[in-house]
Amino acid sequence: xxxxxxxxxxxxxxxxxxxxxxxxxxxxxxxxxxxxxxxxxxxxxxxxxxxxxxxxxxxxxxxxxxxxxxxxxxxxxxxxxxxxxxxxxxxxxxxxxxxxxxxxxxxxxxxxxxxxxxxxxxxxxxxxxxxxxxxxxxxxxxxxxxxxxxxxxxxxxxxxxxxxxxxxxxxxxxxxxxxxxxxxxxxxxxxxxxxxxxxxxxxxxxxxxxxxxxxxxxxxxxxxxxxxxxxxxxxxxxxxxxxxxxxxxxxxxxxxxxxxxxxxxxxxxxxxxxxxxxxxxxxxxxxxxxxxxxxxxxxxx
Length: 301
Fold this sequence. Notes:
This protein has 301 residues and is an alpha/beta fold. Helices cover 52% and strands 10% of the residues. The radius of gyration is 20 Å and the shape is elongated.
């Protein structure tokens, strides 16, 4: 789940900022400002009209950079790479990794969510071969879709910006590669820990649903502080993210992006569209940019 909606422990650097998702980056030798907008991949593209100033920011910028190039994400090579990373090693299945009791609890969870479980031959043939991380991500998506009525994979909010930039003949790019994201988000955790995290989702369904719903409400309210509070919720046990996991998923990536952004902004005014969870905190992108000498201001409502 946390790979999918991005986990972090936010610090207090932006707790007094007004609720907003769009920020202007200026100063430090930039001839023209750039912008950064926080995204959520399950939000619809139509949400763009709810963000004050975003269309002007798009007009002012000559290129758009996301976490990765969305075209690359949907290319055949990337899809094959992702599919391979989501599968257990040959000869291994979930029921060989989980105990009989754990499989029973997983089936009960799936039955309540989907009305069907691994005992169904068609479901078992597909899902028993998935890694615990891939299955956790899939079940989290299905839970969201069940509660929200679904979403259009081809018209996501975070993909809108690159599509619109391409339509306008502007440059597009990614701060990371698909290979890096697959390795980090799908292959960066040992199987035993993946199994533990899957069972955390299964055994704490109400807590996980509440966290997801809180994040969704906060995002649509454009309230980064509320996103922080929702993501800060803890069970105070082994289900909570470990510091090294937070570093891998969030903080190390934030630091890497901020080493790449200056050259991009100096070359052309750029709109960066990245997950909203990456923005706030002492180790968030906004604060790191300020530490690097830039002026970072919220675009007011």
